[in-house]
Amino acid sequence: MMAILTALAVASASAASAHYGDTLLAQELSRHPTLDYASISLDNSNNARFEAGTAGPRSKHVVVPLLDALGTNIGTLELAFDRSPGKNTVATIESDVSRHVYSKAVLAEPDPFVAGAVRSSFGQALVERELSREPRLVTIAFHVALPERDNQIIASNFGRIGKAADSDDQRVIASSTILQEETNNGQRLAVELPLLDRSGRTIGALSTSFLTGPGPGEKAIAYRSALRVQHDLSRSIARLERLAK
Q1: Would you say residue 134 lies in a domain?
Q2: How far is it, in rounded angstroms, from Cα 96 to Cα 132?
Q3: 3-state SS assignment for residue 46
Q4: Number of compact structural domains in the chain
Q5: Sheet strands side by side (includes 49-53)
Q6: 15-70: per-residue pLDDT in tens?
Q7: pTM of the prediction?
Q8: Which of 83, 104, 125, 164 is a good FRET partner for 206, with 20 to 30 A between their CA atoms?
Q9: End-to-end CA distance of the chain
C-alpha cells in the first residue's frame, strides 16, 4: 500500500490538472491487478465522467450503482476486468470508492487541490487504516504544517490535498479544543480534535465525521469513536517529521 500511495503522491504533484475522481479510480487499478478500467458517470451533472485505465476487447464489464459515503446514489460505477470477477471483488471496489466520495462535487475538484501540494504517503496509509477499522467513519483528514510549509490537508479520504487550514482548524491546534457539529439533518456528527504525536504533543488538527442514527446515545457513540481514532493515530506517529516521509 505504501508504494501505491507514494506513486499516487508523485503523480498528483506532477499533474495538477487531474481530477480527484480520476486519481481515486487510478488507486483502485493499483490495488486490483485484474482490474483493467474503471469509470464513474454522475447523475444530473452534465454527463460528468471520470476514468482510469483501458478496457481490452475481451474485458469483462460490470456496472453497479455508485453511492457516496452517506449512502446517497450519485451515479454509476463501471468496472472492466481481464477475467470474470468474483462478487467479493466487485463489492470491495464499490465500497472502497464510495467511502472516498463524501459528495459528488469532490470528484470534479483538482487533485491535488492546490498545485504543488504534498500528500503524506504515511499519513494517507493511516487514513486508509482508520477507514478499515471504523465502518461508520465518513470523513477523515489531517491538517498539518509540515516543515517549511503552511498548515494544510496532507491526507484525507475525500481529496482536497493542499487545502489551507481554516479558523476552526487553527483554533483546535492553538487551544487543544475539540469541536463538534451535527450536520446532514442529524445524520452525521463532525468532530475535530488535536492531532497528537506519540508523546501527546499537538502536531495538527484531525478532522473526522461519523454516521449517526436517530436513537438515543448515537452522538455519544460517534464522539467516543472520534476519540478512539485520535488515540489510535497518536500511537502510530512518533513525531511530526514522520508524516513528512
Answers
A1: yes
A2: 10
A3: coil
A4: 2
A5: 49-53, 35-42, 73-81, 60-67
A6: 445 999 999 999 999 999 999 999 999 987 677 899 999 999 999 999 999 999 99
A7: 0.90
A8: 104
A9: 14
Tell which of 57, 82, 108 closes a domain: 108
Cell of 70: 452517506
Distance separating alpha carbons of residues 210 and 20, to the nearest angstrom: 22
Closest CA to 127 of 116, 111, 118, 138: 138
The arrangement of strands across the sheet holding 188-196 comes to 152-156, 137-144, 202-211, 188-196, 179-183
Task: Measure CA 216 to chain center.
Answer: 29
By the 8 A CB rule, do 93 and 81 touch? Answer: no
Does residue 57 fall inside a structural domain? yes
Minimal CA–CA distance to 81: which of 72, 65, 92? 92
Q: Using one digit for the tens of pLDDT, what is the confidence trace for 137-168?
A: 999 999 999 988 999 999 999 999 999 999 99
DSSP 105-133: GGGGSBSSSSTT----HHHHHHHHHHHHH
DSSP β-bridge partners for residue 67: 73
